[in-house]
Every structure is written in structure tokens, then in C-alpha cells.
Amino acid sequence: MKKVVPFLLFVLIAHLSVAQNLNPAGFHTHRESLKNSFLKFQNEKKGRVAFLGGSITYNPGWRDSVCNYLQQRFPETEFDFIAAGIPSMGSTPAAFRFERDVLKNGPVDLLFEEAAVNDDTNSRSPEEMVRGMEGIVRHARSAKPACDIVIMHFVDPGKMDEYRSAKIPVVIQQHEKVAEHYTISTINLAKEVTERIDAGEFDWDNDFVNLHPSPFGQGVYARSIIQFLEDEFSNDFSKEKAEQHETPTPLDKFCYDAGKLIAPNPPKPIKGWEFVENWHPDNDKGTRLNYTNVPMLVGEYPGKIIKFQFKGNAVGIAVAAGPDAGIIEYSIDDQPWEKQDLFTQWSNNLYLPWYFTLESGLKNRKHTIQIRLSDEKNPESTGRKCVLRYFYFN
């Protein structure tokens, strides 16, 4: 034992020295400062801060800690905190629901945005990752050109594997393209968590638990984000004035910067489709907020067509994709009919809110879309339903 104890002590000291070298600041990329929001909070004693993302932002944890930090950092400021996290939703849904969920009380002074986990796990294409994130940024700054934005990259096992293989996850590359183009600061928590685990500070299974972090994991996120904010707010802005952020030409001219949701409320009945004022599933499967006990346009009879006109360059539908989700066929401007399976890998047990972008890159003019249910169905589905919550256009 006399030989073992000194060895264990040496290992412990070595472990701690490695852990202490991992400063959260090493995972922060500071571009344009948070001067505008600081001056608003400090001088005007008012501020609106929005948190946009998926379930990691929706769940209690880092968001609450950041709110507490801001209130303590600016004790005389009256804050309006907008919690706009919705489970399973990444940058494409966020771009289209931005008006409803983020700007509902008016323009935002400081926006926290995360979509790296859901854009990846929901299999969004690299093109969509840019179009969605760029749409969010441009929408925020069209509402308030002085809006400060912070983009965060949260962790999941796939991202850890890629970093350990000396690769940068595609979704982080795409979101960083947007951040760099608009000089927006980013916090790479995916890389930070990976390196902290590899340094022996904690482990994934017992401490962080999974991509929906344990309270411990939420604390890791909170500490890093708060240090980022403290570093930003430690700058001397006393002689500065708030300025509008420059808005360069878009990276992608078809980005979703004018996204909007339209509830389907047909002026007269549509044969084969039923407008249900207070829809809820007729089984015990899970649901999500705003997708149950709400108006829905429900179709389940193949061949019956709904037709809507819209103006823009993209169109899609937001549905409750449950165990009975069907396959739709759609045609835009009388082009050949195409198919979209509404059944997702999670639909067996949950009426999952899902955004299907049916077409993008269109000419920015008036278009007509027709939708009908197909005779076909996914082998795993129990039905052929389309439970439609919104049309969305850009």
C-alpha cells in the first residue's frame, strides 16, 4: 500500500492539472460584441432576451441559470425572458415559427439560438442547415437591426465521435458559416463537453447522461455560457453607443428569412378533409404542446385534394406525425405529383410535431399547392392520416 498510495496521489494531481487547463473560454469564438444588449440593459433598465431551440432549451437548466445571472448582473433591469424552446425542433422550424414564438412581445435585444443537435438528428440537409439558421438571424435583425445574437452548439454522441476522429461535425460547420458571415459569436459546447470527458473531468453515462443533459450536464452548459457573457460584459462600453449590425447579402438567397406559419382554416368544407376545432388523438400516444387540443385540418381519405395559394419561394406543412401518419402526394403549379411520407422514426409512440419542407428555391411569386392522401402507407404506420397544424411559407 505504501507504493500504491503515492501513485494514486500522483494520478489525482495529474488529473486535476489537466482538468484545470480546460478553460471554457477556449471553446468560445468572440466576433461582434454584445455591446448593444449591454447598453440597453445597463442604461435603459429594460431588456428582452429570447432562448430559441429544441428540448435542451425547453427543459429546465441552463436557460434558468442564464436568466438568473442576467438578473443579478443587471439588478435594476426589468427583463422579459422569452422561452421559445420546443422539443425536436431545429433551425428550419425555428425560422418559420420565429414571428409567433420569438417576436410575440416585440423585437428582441439578445437572442440565444441552438439547433446543432436537432438539425443533425432530424437529418436536415447541409443546405437546410444554412437556410434555417440564416433565416433566423436575418429575421431577428430585420425586426431589430441592433439585436445581439449568440449561437450555441450542443453535444450528442455523434458529435463526440466526430471530434475524436479529428472531424468537425457538418452541422457545426454549416452553422459556423452563418455565424462568421454575420460576425456572430458562438459557443461550442459539443467540443467542450467532449474534451472535458476525455480529460477525465466527468463521464457521459454517469454524469452528463445523454444529449438531454442531467442537472449536472445543464450546469456544465450554464457555467460555460455565463463565463462567455461575463467576458463580454467585462468590456468597457461606457463611452460607446448602440449601433445597428451590418446585414450582408445572404449566403443563400433562398434562406428562410421571411418564414411564416399559416393555420389552415378553409372558408368552406373540403370533401374528404375535416377541420377539427379541438383535435386530440383517439389513443394514449404522446403529444406535444400546441399540437393537441388545437385546431387541425385532418385528412384520411386517399385522393381528396386540398388546394392553397401562397406567395414566396418555399412551402411546407407542419403536422402531428403520429402512429397513423400517412403518405401525401403534392403538386405545385400543376407540376408532376410528388410523395412525402409523414411517418417518422419516432411516430410509433408520439404525435411528433414535424416540419416537412415540400419545396424551396421557387421563384418568389404566387404559387398554388395541391395536397392529397396516397393509397400507399408506411409499413409501420397504422393508418393514412394527415393531421395538419400549419402551412408554412417563405
Determine the fraction of residues in helical runs and give it as a percent range.
25-40%
What is the CATH architecture term of the largest domain? 3-Layer(aba) Sandwich
Write down the CATH topology of the largest domain: Rossmann fold
Calculate the terminal CA-CA distance, rounded to whole Å.
70 Å
Spatial shape: globular
CATH superfamily of the largest domain: SGNH hydrolase
Mean pLDDT across the residues is: 93
What structural class do you assign from the helix and strand content?
alpha/beta
The gyration radius over C-alpha positions equals 23 Å
Which stretches are poorly predicted, pLDDT < 50 over at least 5 residues?
Answer: 1-20
- In the CATH scheme, the class of the largest domain would be Alpha Beta
* Whole-number count of domains: 2
Beta-strand content: 25-35%
Order of helices and strands: HEHEHHEHEHHEHHEHHHEEEEEEEE
* Counted beta strands: 14
Major sheet characteristics:
8 strands, antiparallel
| Tally of helical runs | 12
